[in-house]
Amino acid sequence: MSDIATASRLRYKYTHFRILVIGRANAGKTTLLKRVCNTTEEPCIYDDQGKNLRGIHDINRPFSFASNPKFIFHDSPGFEAGDEAQLKTVQEFIKKRANATEVDDQLHAIWFCFTPDVSRFLFNLEMDFFNQERAGRAPVIAVFTKFDDFINQVFDIDLDDDENRTAAKRKLAELQAPLFKYKFPPRAGVCLEDMHLNDCAHQEQVKKLIEQTAGSLNNLALELLFVSIQQNNLELCMKYAVK
Predict the structure, then answer these.
(1) DSSP secondary structure string, 193-235?
(2) Helix 220-228 × helix 234-241 angle, to 10°
(3) I want to staple 216 with a disulfide (CB 3.0 to 4.6 A). Which of 53, 93, 155, 187 is the partner?
(4) Strand partners for 164
(5) CA–CA separation, 141 vs 107, rounded Å?
(6) What is the pLDDT of residues 23-66, one digit of tens each?
């Protein structure tokens, strides 16, 4: 059977790909997920009986978008408030999903969203999250959102726009470096900007996120499943189909 046929078979066999999205307040998580699913609609959140709980966000309540229901998301607030109970809730959720026997019930990836802040890049509980062993094999991808705002934070009036962008990239690399030195660091990182604007190249940025996530799975079957349900990037689907 060809690799393309294998990808099609996996898409038929599995119902969805499950992602936990963790992020601070105003990290742009909903905007990001809308871009990933290429939609403007609001997500549908369901209880155990399949009832739509619009407007209610709970890590144990999965949600999706009608335009691409094969992506199942779970939402968790970030840890900037210093609530250790929130960290424990996330850890228990990850452990529960790691112990699931059905592939569709397992957690396949974690997107940890950061809004880069030059004054305090990481909070204590975020450090704890990356220093404590997590159950299962779901890779964590660090997603640095709102790079456009970060450029304004480090803006130097004596530099032109290109120089300010270069300086911001250099500063962000400097600030994020310790994150990847913790005991259980992210498997990869992606920087995003202007995702709220309709006229920016957001699908190119989504492509980078998809590539980094797929490359972090270390499981060809899951890679094929993941890219096969990412409807907006046919180039990626073909790339992994012939990998």
Answers:
(1) --TT-TTS-HHHHHHHHHHHHHHHS--HHHHHHHHHT-TT-HH
(2) 160
(3) 187
(4) none
(5) 13
(6) 887 888 888 898 888 888 888 776 655 555 555 568 988 888 88
> Whole-prediction pTM value?
0.84
Stretch (H or E) spanning 165: helix 161-176
The CA–CA distances, whole Å, from 113 to 32, 39, 95, 126, 207 equal: 10, 20, 20, 11, 16
Nearest alpha carbon to residue 76 among 54, 57, 63 = 57
The Cα 197–Cα 193 span in angstroms is: 9
Find out whether 53 and 46 touch, Cβ atoms under 8 Å: yes
CB 27 within 8 Å of CB 78:
yes
DSSP run (H or E) holding 111: strand 109-114
